[in-house]
Amino acid sequence: MEIRTFESADVVATEAALYIADRIRENIAKKGIFTMAISGGRTPWAMIKELAKADLPWEKVFLFQVDERIAPDAHPDRNLTQLFKAIEGSKLVLRLNLFPMRVNAEDLNEACAEYESHINRMTGNGKLDLIHLGIGTDGHTASLVPDDPILEVMDKGVDITGNTYQGRLRMSLTYPLINQAEKILWVITGEEKAEMLDRLLHRDHAIPAGKIDQQHALVFTEELAAAKIK
């Protein structure tokens, strides 16, 4: 898996935004649209803020969520809330085709199936052009967290976690859907992520992130996080 290391988290955010912008232009030139799913996090929100400044045909970009907490609308725990903060004041607000996860639906299983159907409809085959992922200090990615039943889900592309994590149940893309993406972009910053980044690169299946396919993946990271790579 390719790894690109930069001097700071701020530079990672900027370079990742430039990389995504290039993929958007490339895919739209080839097939007319671009489909992407994003995760949350401090550096990713900075990345999205930078990306929102780019002059791109946003009406042809279709944005999905990798995961979302089961929490009320506009709650600060929600990734959607933080996404809107990141793009606030940009032209992107009016032009973006956004598919939020319906985590307040009465029937969450139905909402998961509906979300997967949206992805299938927009992509035609379930393969998103790009999925952005991060990693936690426990090795989780998306809301695929250690010891959760969702790790064993192979017949659904979107599902609900079986256990609460940091006080919330979550809706998340699952391994089958993530692993068929055309590109997977890992954005990993912070010295506290160094051990898990090394384990990710060595495909350690003892952590959830280690089971993500690496064939079409690359990592954008900073020097502090890359310090323990062997």
From TrEMBL:
SUPFAM superfamilies: NagB/RpiA/CoA transferase-like (SSF100950). One of its GO terms (biological process) is pentose-phosphate shunt. InterPro entries: 6-phosphogluconolactonase_DevB, 6PGL, Glc/Gal-6P_isomerase, NagB/RpiA_transferase-like. Residues 8-216 form the Glucosamine/galactosamine-6-phosphate isomerase domain. Its EC number is 3.1.1.31. It is an enzyme of class 3 (hydrolase). Pathway: Carbohydrate degradation; pentose phosphate pathway; D-ribulose 5-phosphate from D-glucose 6-phosphate (oxidative stage): step 2/3. Keywords: Hydrolase. GO terms for molecular function: 6-phosphogluconolactonase activity. It comes from the Bacteria. It catalyses: 6-phospho-D-glucono-1,5-lactone + H2O = 6-phospho-D-gluconate + H(+). Belongs to the glucosamine/galactosamine-6-phosphate isomerase family. 6-phosphogluconolactonase subfamily. PANTHER family: 6-PHOSPHOGLUCONOLACTONASE. Hydrolysis of 6-phosphogluconolactone to 6-phosphogluconate. This is 6-phosphogluconolactonase. It comes from Algoriphagus boritolerans DSM 17298 = JCM 18970. The gene is pgl.
